[in-house]
Each structure stands twice: as C-alpha cells, then as structure tokens.
Specification:
Layout lengths: L3 H4 L4 E2 L7 H32 L9 H29 L2 H20 L3 H29 L5 H27 L11 H14 L7 H6 L3 H12 L3 E2 L2 H5 L14 H7 L1 H21 L3 H7 L11 H16 L2 H13 L4 H24 L4 H17 L1 H12 L5 H54 L7
Parallel strand pairs: 1-2
C-alpha cells in the first residue's frame, strides 16, 4: 500500500513559498540571539555604576570599567570568527545549540561568584557564544525565507536587538528599584533566563537544508526542509524532482589569502561601517547610564542615594532605548519600499553625526534638558533605522552561499573590534575631556561610516 505523503510532490521552492507560521517560528528563534546580544551589553552598562557604589570597587579605574564593558564584545569578536568558519565546514545546527549553552553556563557562574575578574571572564564567554549567533541567525533566516519576504524577516530578526535593549534596561530598573544594596551580580540572572529560553527553543530544530544541499547531501537536505517548512516546500525545482546528489561546493574559494583578495571590497563594506556602528551601539550604548549622569540629562535629587541615582539613570536609559524599536521598524519599512540599503545606511550615519553635534551643543550651551534628550533619542533612532539594521542585512546579500558564514563572521568580528575600541575609549575620553570630547569623537566616527558606505557601496554588487 502506497503512503500518500511518499508520492506528494512539493508545490513551492524556498524562494517562492508563501509566508507561514513556520517562517515566523524560525524568525522568532533566530531573534533571541540578537536579543541576548544587546541585553548583555545593557546589563553590563548598569553593572558598572552599581559596582562603583560598593566599598570594594568604589575607586574602580577607567580601564577596569572599559574592560567590563568590552569583555563580551571581545568574546563576540572571537566567537564570530570561530563559529562562522566552523559552521561553513560542520553545519549550523550544532553551534546553534551550543552557543546559548555557553552563554547560560557563563551567566550563572557570574551570579554565583561575584568577583570582578570572574565577571570579566564570564562576560567574555557570554560574548563568545553570542558571536556564533551573529553569523548563524542571519544565515538560517536568509536561507529559509521566501525571496519576497527575506528583507522583512531578516529585519524582524534584528528587531530582537531592540527588544534586548528595552528588556535589559526594564528588568534592571525593576530589580534595582527594589534593592537596598547594590547586588550587581544578580543582574546576570536576566541573561541566564534569556539563554535558557534560547536553548529550549532550539532542542527541536534542524540543520540548514541549503548547507546540506551545498555539500551534496540532497536527501538529508529535503528531509530537514520538510521538518522546518513542511512537505510542500523544496529547496529548488530540480531538487524536488531528482534524488541525484549534486557536486559538493567547496567551503572556501581557495587559499586563505585568496579569500581576502577576492572579497576585499565586501570585507570593507560589511566590516568598517559595522565597526563604526559598533561605537554607537556599544561604545555609547553600554555607557548610556554613565553618560546620562555626566551630561546632566537625568533628574538628579540632592537627597537621593547613590542607588537611587543609578536607578534614575537606568530609567532614562530605558526611555532612550524605547526609540530603538521604532527605528528598526522604520528601517524595515524603507527596505521593503526598495530603498537601497547602502544609501539608507550612509544617510543615517550622517543623521547620527548631526544628532550628536546637536547634543554636544545642547550640553556646551546649557540648553534645556529636553533638547539634549531629544538629540540623544534622535541619534538612537537614526542609528537603528540605518547602520544597526543594515550592517546585519548586508553580509548575507554580498557573500555567496559557500563562504557566507565566513564572510558574515569576519564582518561581525570587525564590527565588534570597533565596539571594543569604543567601549574602552568612552570612559577614558570622559575622564580626559568630559562629555564634549565623547560626543565630538563619536560624531567623527559616524561621518567615517557614512563615507565608507558611500564609496564601497558603489563597488559591490548585492546578491539575492
């Protein structure tokens, strides 16, 4: 007796399939990786002023503050390179599950051993796990979404970063507002909870069908695709009518030097602007609570305790962070309207620079606090309409499939190198020249990001 499901032929390919709840499930699972990345940075930024309230770390140096803020970013930089290349060779699924496990173990360790050295090490390993997410999230999403909705769904994955900012700030505020002592290590429970949710969501998940197909494993590829998107979808028309194995595609284009030579324009276009964006998202983002107090944007009270001052700065950080999600949504809408993403990124980099100049003038000229707040929010808005969104969308569109994991990993690593530099520099610049120096330096970096995007965006062709 013949089983009907055995003779049922797929009606669609991945490229032309209708959007279903399965696509939204994949997007939601991938978005958790972006969410935890910004949540860690936000929580680290809150931990720094909390530690300064304790007797042990009351005189913490700018270098130590920078190290705490940069530890997870250094981990992301290393993890992006390691997991990006490993996933091209060994597949996505193993590392898609391993990464949240690393983050979970590291964050729990940071809670149980409240020491600055242990915190730095644990934040590094949190970042190491998150580094894999920056490659795998975009790879899974870009390979499984219909062409018509690919930009939309990639954008929805990236909105997880906005949710991470908001969630990290909101939960930190709720905890701090109820404390009588600065129990800073307990904030890492926030990260542990998100990592546990990520791990649970990936227990019932499958290998990338396109990766399997690319390596000649057609039967496994179609089986994985049926499990992910249902029996009506095939990898391609030819794949649905033939079981003959295709010739495996090599996972590199040749020698190591050949990759960097062949894709040098792609590396610059996807990496350098991501590095500039990293200064804004992390260099400024991690220290928003500190900058809010330094620029006088928070509502200080002369009789407030140190813990209350930190809580108020975190609340202001929460309000600033709330503009990030509308920024992502506007950016996604513009991308769906076929605005070229390199033009969008360049224009928004310039808008970020102008917003920082306005914030600098407001601080220097002692303008009303609401002008400073609006300027800060405008910076965050344009940063997320363009650079923060586009730097995530761009690598999968400019690297071919066989080197996509590696290319995306390199881009993320370069981006996090800029973020690390920014996180180290911000406290040093604050100490050396105050808020004016930080804002002037950051505005210059945004202008560099705009110029590089404009120049190299004309040299690189986008792929489907």
């Amino acid at each position: 007796m013949t089983v009907i499901s055995d003779i049922r032929r797929p009606q669609y390919t991945i490229a032309d399939a209708p959007l279903s709840w399965r696509h939204w499930w994949i997007t939601a699972v991938a978005a958790l990786g972006q969410m935890i990345g910004t949540a860690v940075a936000t929580v680290a930024g809150v931990i720094i002023p909390l530690m300064a309230l304790t007797t042990t770390y009351a005189h913490m140096s700018s270098w130590v503050q920078g190290l705490i803020g940069a530890a997870d970013l250094i981990g992301i930089m290393v993890g992006s390179l390691v997991f990006g290349r490993l996933s091209d060779r060994y597949g996505y699924l193993l590392f898609f599950r391993l990464c949240p496990g690393i983050v979970l173990a590291s964050s729990v360790c940071a809670v149980l051993v409240p020491d600055v050295t242990v915190l730095v090490i644990c934040l590094f390993f949190c970042g190491f796990g998150i580094g894999g997410e920056y490659s795998l999230d975009s790879d899974y999403t870009s390979e499984l979404m219909p062409d018509r909705y690919k930009l939309l769904m990639l954008g929805m994955v990236k909105t997880g970063a906005a949710v991470g900012n908001i969630l990290g700030a909101a939960l930190s505020f709720l905890l701090i507002s109820r404390w009588t002592a600065p129990d800073w290590s307990h904030l890492m429970w926030i990260i542990a909870a998100i990592a546990a949710l990520m791990l649970l969501s990936r227990i019932y998940f499958f290998e990338s069908p396109k990766w399997l197909s690319c390596h000649g494993r057609q039967a496994e590829a179609q089986s994985a695709l049926h499990s992910l998107l249902g029996p009506d979808v095939a990898i391609s028309t030819s794949a649905s009518h033939s079981s003959a194995p295709s010739r495996p595609v090599p996972h590199t284009t040749g020698k190591k030097s050949d990759f960097y030579t062949e894709f040098r324009n792609q590396i610059v276009l996807s990496g350098i602007p991501w590095s500039c964006e990293g200064l804004g998202v992390y260099g400024i983002g991690v220290f928003i609570p500190v900058l809010v107090m330094a620029l006088g944007i928070g509502h200080d009270s002369p009789d407030a305790t140190g813990l209350q001052d930190v809580a108020r700065s975190v609340l202001t950080t929460l309000w600033i962070s709330c503009i990030i999600l509308p920024g992502f949504l506007i950016g996604i809408w513009l991308c769906m309207k076929k605005v070229r993403i390199v033009i969008l990124q360049s224009a928004c980099f310039w808008a970020c620079a102008v917003s920082l100049v306005a914030l600098l003038l407001s601080y220097h000229m002692h303008w009303p606090v609401w002008i400073s707040l609006i300027s800060f929010m405008a910076f965050e808005l344009f940063l997320n309409i363009g650079p923060h969104l586009v730097t995530y969308l761009l690598p999968p569109r400019i690297y071919p499939l066989e080197v996509r994991g590696r290319g995306t990993g390199i881009a993320a690593a370069i981006g996090k190198a800029g973020a690390v530099a920014g996180v180290f520099l911000v406290p040093l610049l604050l100490k050396a020249g105050g808020g004016v120096t930080v804002l002037a330096f950051s505005a210059g970096i945004m202008a560099i990001g705009a110029a590089v995007t404009s120049i190299f965006g004309r040299r690189v062709k986008e792929l489907s």
